[in-house]
Write a structure and sequence with these properties.
Length: about 400
């Protein structure tokens, strides 16, 4: 067996970034920028009002209160030419409206009242008040987001406002999931004696979908060597990432490693000194990276969250190390003699405001019930590693 750190290193060394492509902005959500995104126009694109009020020349407000004849209204709408403000007058302007030529200040509506076609400015305002200047946030051609930035809803809005129509991103990975086991029945199908409903397929589909990488397909594969061979061959030809559940240990029907290598796969690792999830198998066949995950659902989740997630990050141009966080360990902590233990836990604030780990019941590899409360997967070093553990590393279960 190899250590968790060695397993992660081998996985990442065998995972190059995916090719880049240019996509329309509305298709980029959830991708990662492969090149910087530049503003196509200044932000804001022109001098404009930040409030509903009146555009004026500040020189006309030398004394207050002051009456100014009221001209036209400038709304936040398309205009063929910039409006003009005559000296000694005011123009009604709405939020986002184009600041008239000659105006340098906006007086908030709350500081005025109307009288006989004029406005009365009751209070003094500073020069340039409530004016958004063209390009004050960013000039045209500025970097609005560097390479390596995930495209979030907020970034989509910012890019749209900056006039960006297309971005260059890393391709989304093509993923195929194979669920093995004669005893495993597709979710919702009737069960015969000795059969169990499939939890791994729905778990993988939900996990990958939440992280923006839904699988191309999920297949249920019987425990026959030829069936496993055919399914793996199809998967290797179609996918960048192949995930299998079950069939990677030392049982009579654990065909995944041998069949993968018959098909030309190069093994990268098999068995990691960890609990749960020890019999992890990873190999590469052509463009496809294979993760042979154990069959127990908690083992699937651990390996998915630690190793598959790191590989997906690397494929998509992200730094996997960015996901690791730190928290204070509980006073009593389960530790294995020669293995890393993966603890499902809640992260809470201690009385002094420091994050701390709160272990949950039901840590066995076949148990998933505590995931309703778990928000963290905590790495607990084995007893062979270091002295007493006071601070532990953890991964959030929520996408980030």
């Amino acid at each position: 067996m190899i250590s968790v750190d060695e397993a992660l290193a081998r996985v990442l060394a065998a995972t190059p970034p995916l090719p880049v492509r240019q996509v329309a902005l509305d298709a980029a959500l959830g991708c990662v920028l492969a090149q910087p995104a530049y503003t196509a126009q200044p932000l804001p694109p022109f001098d404009q009002s930040g409030v509903d009020g009146y555009a004026v020349r500040h020189a006309d407000l030398a004394t207050v209160p002051v009456r100014l004849p009221l001209g036209t209204t400038v709304a936040a709408a398309a205009q063929t030419q910039r409006p003009h403000l005559a000296p000694g007058t005011a123009v009604r302007i709405l939020t986002g409206g184009w600041l008239p030529d000659g105006a340098d200040t906006v007086v908030r509506q709350e500081l005025t009242h109307r009288e006989d076609g004029c406005i009365v400015v009751r209070e003094a305002v500073a020069p340039g008040a409530d004016v958004r200047r063209c390009g004050e946030e960013m000039p045209s051609g500025a970097i609005i987001a560097p390479a390596g930035t995930p495209v979030t809803p907020g970034l989509v809005g910012a890019l749209a406002l900056a006039g960006v129509r297309e971005v260059t991103v890393y391709a989304r990975p093509r993923i195929v999931v194979l669920v093995t086991g004669d005893e495993v029945v597709a979710h919702g199908a009737p069960l015969a004696p000795g059969q169990i409903p499939d939890a791994n397929g729905p778990l993988l589909a939900a996990y990958l979908g939440a992280w923006g990488c839904p699988p191309l397909r999920i297949e249920h594969v019987p425990d026959r060597q030829e069936a496993v061979r055919d399914a793996l061959a199809r998967a290797f030809a179609a996918a960048d990432l192949v995930l299998t559940t079950g069939g990677v240990s030392v049982g009579d029907y654990d065909f995944i490693p041998a069949v993968a290598e018959q098909l030309g796969a190069t093994p990268l690792l098999w068995k990691v000194a960890q609990k749960p999830g020890m019999p992890l198998y990873v190999a590469r066949c052509g463009q496809a990276l294979l993760f042979g995950l154990p069959g127990n659902p908690a083992s699937v989740l651990v390996n998915l969250h630690v190793y598959v997630r790191a590989s997906l990050d690397r494929m998509c141009g992200l730094d996997p190390a960015r996901r690791w966080r730190w928290a204070r360990a509980p006073h009593t902590l389960r530790r294995e003699a020669q293995k890393t233990f993966w603890l499902r836990a809640r992260i809470v604030y201690a009385d002094d405001g420091v994050l701390r780990v709160e272990p949950l019941h039901g840590q066995a590899s076949h148990m998933l019930g505590n995931l309703a409360q778990a928000d963290a997967l905590v790495r607990v070093p084995g007893l062979h590693e270091a002295a007493p553990v006071e601070i532990v590393r953890w991964l959030a279960f929520t996408p980030c």
